[in-house]
Design a protein that fits this description.
The chain has one domain (2-130). It is 70% helix and 0% strand. The protein has four helices and no strands. Helix 1 packs across helix 2 (55-68), helix 1 runs parallel beside helix 3 (74-99) and helix 3 (74-99) packs antiparallel against helix 4 (103-130).
Length: 166
């Protein structure tokens, strides 16, 4: 009887150890795949944002952009890569618009630049929401309600950031 208990406990310990090893391998594999994906995003962003032969510097800049904008996961890394590409393209487009003397070309470039700036603004707002950065908070301390008027009194919550369950 005692021997069976020891055997069962040994079996449970071995199974527990095997389970931990399997989890560690899975975590290691996930981390490896995440790093591989991040490097792919950085490489593509460097290609999109680089001048012809300066890929090494562009890769370092792309990596710095991820850190500065506080990318917390792969989705945010992809969004930041898009944002930096869009921003650079918008800056180049407006520069070209300022240098051209042809009205139709100028108007086309200005319109393109405006569309790119709007795209960037939407991306920045999305990144802020994904990172849980909320907008303004307004505190009203005194409310005056006249005859026929209506007021809501209390703590009013607007839209909450993605993932925030409060």
């Amino acid at each position: 009887m005692m021997r069976n208990n020891i055997d069962n406990q040994t079996l449970e310990i071995n199974q527990s150890h095997d389970s931990l090893e399997s989890k560690n391998k899975n975590n290691h594999e996930k981390n490896y795949q995440r790093e591989k994906f991040k490097n792919k995003i950085l490489s593509h962003n460097a290609l999109a944002c680089s001048d012809k032969d300066d890929l090494v510097n562009a890769l370092a800049e792309s990596e710095n952009d991820m850190k500065v904008l506080n990318a917390q996961n792969s989705l945010q890394e992809m969004l930041i890569a898009q944002m930096t590409s869009i921003h650079l393209l918008q800056q180049k487009t407006i520069t070209l618009a300022n240098r051209t003397g042809i009205f139709d070309t100028n108007q086309y470039l200005v319109n393109s630049s405006i569309k790119l700036a709007n795209c960037f603004t939407q991306q920045a707002a999305l990144l802020a929401r994904l990172q849980g950065i909320s907008g303004q908070k307004i505190v009203v301390e005194y409310v005056e309600v006249h005859n026929g008027g209506q007021a809501i009194v209390g703590n009013i919550q607007g839209a909450t950031p993605l993932g925030d369950k409060t």
